[in-house]
Each structure stands twice: as C-alpha cells, then as structure tokens.
Write a structure and sequence with these properties.
single chain, 211 residues, alpha+beta, three-stranded antiparallel β-sheet, 16% strand, disordered N terminus
Length: 211
C-alpha cells in the first residue's frame, strides 16, 4: 500500500515539477520580451535631435523661398520645396552657409527640372535627413496654403485661397514694441549655447512676445 502510494505521489511530484518548469519558462520568456520592448522604447526615445546650429543666411532663405512660392503660384509642372532645398545645400556646404555657392542651387534646380527627385539627389548624402528634420522643425509652416479675408466692392467679405509666406509678426498693428537684437549672443543658463532668437517686448506692461 505504501509502495503504491509512493508511486502515485512520485507521479504527482514529477507533474508538479514539470508544471513549475513550464510556468517558469513562460514567465522568463515574457520578462525577456518586456525587457526587450522597454529597451527598444528607450532607444526610440533617445533617437531625436537635441540641438542644431541654424545659420542659413537671409540670401539663401530668400532664394529658396522665392523658388518655392513662385513655382506654386504659377502652378508650374515642377514645384520646389524650400526646406528640401535648404537641407540639400547644407549637405553641400557642411552646414556652414558662409560657404554657400549660388552655383550649387542653380545645379540643384537644373537637376530637378531634368526629372530627378530630391530623394534620388540626396540618397548618398549621409546627413540629409538630419538637416531636413532640423530645418523643418524651424521653418515648417512658414510657407504654404492659407486663406485671407478680402472685402469686395459692395462691402461683402469673402476668403481667397493663396500660397506664400504665412508666418507673421505676433504684434497687432499700431502697437509699439522694443527690440533687443541679441541673436547669436552666448547663453549659459542650463547649458552653454548660442541664442537663436530676438527678444520682442510689447508696449502694454512690457509684455514679452517672443524670442
């Protein structure tokens, strides 16, 4: 009787051991999967641009903006995107627009006119995506479609669809403001960096508008 009971208990004991091993394996697998997911999530969170030096000259901004706006206004077959062009030019001059050559922009326009896409032209440019993402964060939304209110001869108001520069001065008409030109000055609060803005102070209780 004792021997028979021992054999039954031994079977139950083995089943329990197998069950424990199986459950432990499942727990370890899910734990590993969660750690892997957390690791991927952490890597994704770290994968962003923390800082960029924006030193595009007014000359280049004007040239590329005009190409973009004119091509859309005239409804040309080929339209240009000024941010894509700026990112391309940044790759050509190493991000330093003091080295900008008008010929680089002329060559780019000619290549696009011949049917090449910006993707084809930049496929071997290692830092194109970096510059595009950076410049888009700064200039995205400055140029595009917008609606503007117009008053007809009979006094009625309608809205016209337009394309062009739609960034605006954040100060109402006829209101004064003071302007401190500190663009490019050194800043040390938090960390050392270059100040990429101008401080605008309003006339009403010295309201701070933007930097």
């Amino acid at each position: 009787m004792y021997i028979k009971s021992f054999k039954i208990n031994k079977k139950i004991f083995l089943l329990v051991i197998i069950l424990i091993i199986l459950l432990s394996s499942i727990a370890i697998f899910y734990s590993f999967a969660n750690d892997l997911e957390d690791s991927k999530s952490t890597e994704e969170k770290k994968d962003f641009i923390k800082w960029v030096d924006f030193n595009v000259s007014s000359e280049v901004l004007n040239l590329t903006a005009k190409l973009d706006i004119d091509s859309h206004k005239k409804e040309e077959e080929i339209t240009y995107n000024w941010i894509e062009m700026l990112a391309y030019l940044a790759c050509k001059n190493g991000g330093n627009f003091k080295n900008f050559k008008t010929q680089d922009l002329t060559n780019l326009v000619e290549e696009i006119k011949m049917g090449k896409t910006i993707k084809e032209l930049t496929q071997n440019m290692k830092f194109y995506n970096y510059y595009y993402e950076s410049y888009h964060a700064i200039l995205g939304g400055f140029i595009g479609n917008y609606s503007i209110e117009v008053v007809d001869k009979d006094g009625s108001k309608t809205y016209e669809e337009k394309y062009g520069l739609k960034a605006f001065l954040p100060i109402a008409k006829n209101y004064a403001f003071s302007h401190y030109d500190d663009f490019g000055n050194s800043r040390s609060y938090g960390f050392k960096r270059t100040h990429l803005g101008n401080d605008l102070m309003g006339s009403i209780r010295n309201t701070y508008y933007c930097s």
